[in-house]
Amino acid sequence: MLKRLYDWTLSLAARKTAEVWLAVIAFIESSVFLVPADVLFLPMGLARPDRVYRYAFIATAASVLGGIAGWMLGHYAFDALAMPILEFYHKVEAFERLKRDWGDSVLLLLITSGLAHLPPIKVVTILSGVMKVDLWLFVVSAIVARGARFYALAWALKRWGEPIRHFIENRLGLIAGLAAALIIGLYLAVKLLG
After folding, report:
1. pLDDT-based confidence at 147, cuts 50/70/90?
2. Cα dist from 99 to 14, 18, 61, 62, 148, whole Å
3. Which one of 28, 80, 111, 172 has the fewest CB atoms closer than 10 angstroms to its CB?
4. Closest CA to 56 of 40, 69, 67
């Protein structure tokens, strides 16, 4: 199922409505969808490098709006809507663990998730609503994290083109994981020393 979903998302990049699909995927990725917007963003950026920053803006704006939807699901409709979403993706245990271990540091999770999808962004946006993170602080954090991700990808695509696609596709998880580990390690060091 995941492979078919991935292939379908990738096929959207070739359509005339690719920008609309990018916005839709980026929006729903932040609250309910499994496939990241990068799957559409990368081929679109490679096909039209002259529009790559435009695509970064679209992906960032839609992702932040989707994050707000996830926040609202967690804040206003956790039992009715958010819990079934978490159950569908088998993320209830991960959600409860994050809530228990990182509830007071959910903004750090929002940043690592926004930059590296660690933990999944949909889980963190819902958790942010459940933990009653100030909505404006949430929005600013989401803009910074998601904007940094998409604009960094846009810059890399503009600078290196096709070779960077293979590098990103093969090593992004590792790089993102290392970056997230570094951020979490710094946070823990500050928390333990402070």
Report:
1. very high
2. 40, 36, 26, 25, 25
3. 80
4. 40
Assess contact for 91 and 123: CB atoms under 8 A: yes
Q: What pLDDT, on a 0 to 100 scale, did the predictor assign at position 69?
A: 94
The residue among 148, 111, 153 whose CA lies nearest residue 128 is 111
pLDDT of residue 194: 54
Confidence band, pLDDT 50/70/90 cuts, at residue 105? confident
Neighbours of 103 (CB within 10 A): 13
CA dihedral of residues 161, 163, 169, 172 (deg, nearest 10): -80
Tokens describing residue 96: 């409860």
51-89 confidence digits (pLDDT tens): 899 999 999 999 999 999 999 999 999 889 888 877 887
Phi-psi region of 117 (alpha: psi -120 to 50; beta: other; left: phi over 0): left
Q: Radius of gyration (Cα) for the chain, nearest Å?
A: 16
Distinct helix (H) and strand (E) counts, the chain: 10, 0
Neighbours of 32 (CB within 10 A): 19
